[in-house]
Design a protein that fits this description.
Elements (H helix, E strand, L loop, with lengths): L15 H10 L4 E10 L9 E4 L4 E3 L4 H20 L6 E7 L11 E9 L4 H6 L7 E5 L3 H10 L5 E6 L13 E5 L15 E4 L4 H17 L5 E4 L3 H13 L4 H4 L2 E2 L12 H14 L5
Parallel strand pairs: 6-7, 6-9, 7-8, 9-10, 10-11
Antiparallel strand pairs: 1-2, 1-5, 2-3, 4-5
Helix pairs in contact: 4-8
Length: about 290
């Protein structure tokens, strides 16, 4: 296993939406609509985009009447470009977000429209880079499965690790790097720098060993900005006592977040916990 580089267990590192776009592009052309410039209050940031096919839209530039008009123009351009191969395959349109669009944001933006067909797949792929933020999830139990279903649609590279080799469902591997590691804590040393770590294995013994390895790596490299452990305050009190006996200081133990999840969400269902944990990670994303 080599998490830092491509391995034979690595699945496609695109989100469901990105992979779906590439799959559809093999069958029919699309118009890529991207927010090119903005002024004032607008629904999406520069760089946000959607793929418009003749019969489907993937992604969003903010919804509302603006998006409806952009989709209509994109489909009109698709027809024009298909009929006139010599025409320029790019177009820029400016929109003011006022009463005429039924939106009161008050800002303005420019949308860039561009044609892509099957032979342009590599060029389009280059415009969909892997997310720079990495989340390493240790544990493929009920909460792990629920959390992966959320994380794979968010701006994260997800590395999913478990000591059991047959626990990763195929339908959840799109956009997720699944890694079998036995012992599970061995994977910690190979995580990409600046990974955010979530620990929720099937075993408290495994959880403890992963936490210990994260603390050792943090001591040596200082490159794991967030390490979260699922469990109660009682669990963390027990872990803290054991980790102190292994030589970790209170200052080092303070780097571990336990329990995990945004405060105020008290449900115990896996999906509820997953939402709370995903929200906690999103709070840590740099402001765009």
């Amino acid at each position: 296993m080599n998490i830092g580089h491509q391995s034979n267990r690595r699945s496609v590192m695109w989100s469901e939406t990105q992979q779906g776009i590439l799959n559809r592009l093999a069958q029919q052309p699309l118009c890529r609509v991207q927010v090119q410039a903005t002024r004032g209050s607008v629904p999406r940031e520069e760089g946000a985009w959607m793929a418009v096919f003749a019969d489907e839209v993937m992604g969003t530039i903010g919804g509302g009447h603006l998006e409806w008009q952009a989709i209509a123009l994109a489909r009109q351009l698709l027809v024009q470009w298909d009929e006139d191969c010599a025409a320029s395959r790019e177009h820029v349109q400016r929109y003011a977000l006022g009463p005429s669009l039924g939106q009161c944001c008050g800002g303005a933006l420019e949308l860039h429209f561009e044609w892509f067909e099957a032979r342009d797949a590599q060029r389009l792929r280059a415009l969909m880079p892997e997310p720079s933020q990495c989340v390493a999830l240790f544990g493929a139990g009920h909460v792990g499965h629920a959390l992966v279903r959320i994380l794979r649609s968010l701006p994260y590279r997800v590395i999913w690790v478990d000591s059991r080799d047959a626990v990763f469902p195929v339908q959840e591997q799109i956009g997720v790097q699944c890694e079998h590691s036995d012992p599970v804590q061995a994977a910690v040393a190979q995580l990409p720098p600046q990974s955010q770590v979530l620990i929720m294995s099937f075993s408290h013994a495994e959880d403890l060993e992963v936490v210990a390895q994260c603390l050792l790596r943090q001591r040596e490299r200082g490159d794991l900005p967030f390490v979260g452990l699922i469990g109660s305050k009682t669990k963390w009190a027990s872990f803290s006592s054991r980790l102190r006996r292994r030589g970790f200081s209170d200052e080092e133990l303070a780097h571990i977040t336990c329990p995990i999840g945004v405060p105020g969400i008290t449900g115990k269902e896996p999906e509820v916990i997953a939402v709370a944990v995903a929200a906690q990670l999103l709070q840590r994303l740099p402001a765009s």
